[in-house]
Amino acid sequence: MGGALAGLAAALPISSHADGAAAGWPQKPIDVVIPFAPGGPVDIAGRTVGVPLGQALRQTIVVVNKAGAGGNIAAAAMARAPADGYEFMLVLDSILTVNPTFYKDAGFKPQTDLSPVAQLGDLASVLVVNENAGIATVDEFIKRARSQRLTFGSGGNGTAGHLYGEWLKYDFGLKVEHVPYKGLAPAVQGLLAGDIDFIVALIPGVLPQIRSGRLRALGLTSTSRQTLLPDVKPLSSLGLVGFEGSSWLGVVGPRGLSADVVARFAVALRTSLDDPATAERLRGLGIEPAFADAAALQARIERESRMWARLLDKMNASAS
């Protein structure tokens, strides 16, 4: 464990002022900002992990919701927060890997304004169609989408569901057209009503409709099967080779965080994820616990930022 902590500390920028303040950290409650409204999967995940995390750190974790602009408001505020180890943010990957390119001015720059702390888990998405669409397999879906125009919905421009659909269009030659909705729930209703042909959504957002038989799950964006949909295979193994990607949740803080604070927080988070009850509840939300340290998280942010920037450039897309 000592070697792992030393390696983690060496990978992070060190502030002498912050290191001095970190000697007795934590000495007061720690805020964990959720960049979305209460009640959603990210909010519930933050509150779920917050309990064992607080126990591991022997301090109270205070969940603070700061929604708006696809997570940009919370991220910009985090970039301006003091690097004293008492304010962190639970982020969905798109906030760091898509928003800085998609928005003309997201209000922050991940590489210079924020400190990666650790990854919490992965969230797979699933491609679904209406049960009455006459499409039962990925092969049938591909043939249909290459012979006629299909429409797909998402929770809005720049969301993962939007980008996955565009990925199918630009890299796999499918004739698909985006229909943005104001949230995933309306998009699901549009699919059920037959207004659109398919969506690619995080599993929890469509699981009730899949289980009731109203929507058919064709395949997963992940590279492996998922606990909530054990009979559904990855799309990359069903004809869409290379169509692989998972959303993820991670923790970041302001730039300049003490390496010691980052390491201690990361160890406490890993301990929390190792708790069977916590892991089971996260899986029930469609989140597969998957810890990664700050260096690995930083590498993933950089890699996926390049991937989405390439796609956004092809799309000539932005929020402005």
Automatic annotation (TrEMBL):
InterPro entries: BUG (IPR005064), Bug_dom1 (IPR042100). Residues 1-18 form the signal peptide. The keyword Signal applies. It comes from Bordetella flabilis. Pfam families: TctC. Keywords: Signal. This is Tripartite tricarboxylate transporter substrate binding protein. Gene3D superfamilies: Bordetella uptake gene, domain 1, Periplasmic binding protein-like II. It comes from the Bacteria. The keyword Disulfide bond does not apply. Belongs to the UPF0065 (bug) family.
